[in-house]
Amino acid sequence: MRTLRNVHERIVDAPAETVGALLDRVSAPDDPLSPTPVWPPIRFDRPLGVGAAGGHGFVRYAVGEYEPGRRIRFDFPPPENGFHALEIEPLGPGRCLVRHVLEQRQNVRETLLWALVIGPLHDTMVEELLDNAVRAATPGAPLRPTRWTRRARLLHRAVGDRAKAAPPPASATLARQAYEKPDFMDACRIPLNPGMPRDPEAWRTVLPFPVRATAPNEILLGKDAGHLDFRASLLIEDDTATLTTVVTIHNLRGRLYWALVRHFHPLTARLMLTRTRHRLARRAAPAPLRPAEPAPR
Length: 297
Prior knowledge:
Elements: E1 2-12, H1 16-23, E2 43-44, E3 53-56, E4 59-67, E5 71-75, E6 83-92, E7 95-106, H2 108-137, H3 150-159, E8 164-166, H4 173-177, E9 184-191, E10 211-215, E11 218-224, E12 228-237, E13 240-249, H5 252-261, H6 265-283
Antiparallel strand pairs: 1-7, 2-3, 3-4, 4-5, 5-6, 6-7, 8-9, 9-13, 10-11, 11-12, 12-13
């Protein structure tokens, strides 16, 4: 076993009290520090305080210590061990140090996993959290945002949220009204992190099909051909995006074509939705620079 100690620090030209107020909003709906939507938000089963349990993404922990405005320690549950902590250290009337510390006892397997996968992702996420601390505490101050390494980009795409098969939603009105008797219908769904656009119009720039119809929370795209027509509905609701595909077949050529394509279609649709979400997340404004989100519809 070895003890990993990973430390990230950033000097912020703002009083410790100002940055401490940001720290106290970690996991809140208006959390200004979590680097969403590219990374999953920090969420707990209750307001921030000792005993609150949750985490971000697949990483689980609970609040072990909380000194408002100064320090939060997050303890990993058994059989894992160790903690990570956010700390604020005053450096004078108008400056402070923001520090993130991770300590964990690791066996050989955990050491390799950290070196190959977790470490590069962790380092990038924490640096983007510190970027947000600077943005929120010193609005308008110059900042050179954290640069992602090629390795971090590849790993992030490999372990990030992916679209999964789902039942076509009853609320996808445009999709269900596209054809009176469709020959095929399926759907896939992906969760949306805070900061992702909830207006379907924002998604049309990255979906490569003509727009056929729009509704307040749904957009319908598609193409017609001699052998078959298809429609693709993107529905935004309950912090998810659902892509529903509807197909109508015209003739024998269409039936033969679809008999082959339908085996590849589910994977293609899931990849398209996953890549679209990834691109929009990368384009989204960081938490301190975006307006408050409206309540989900």
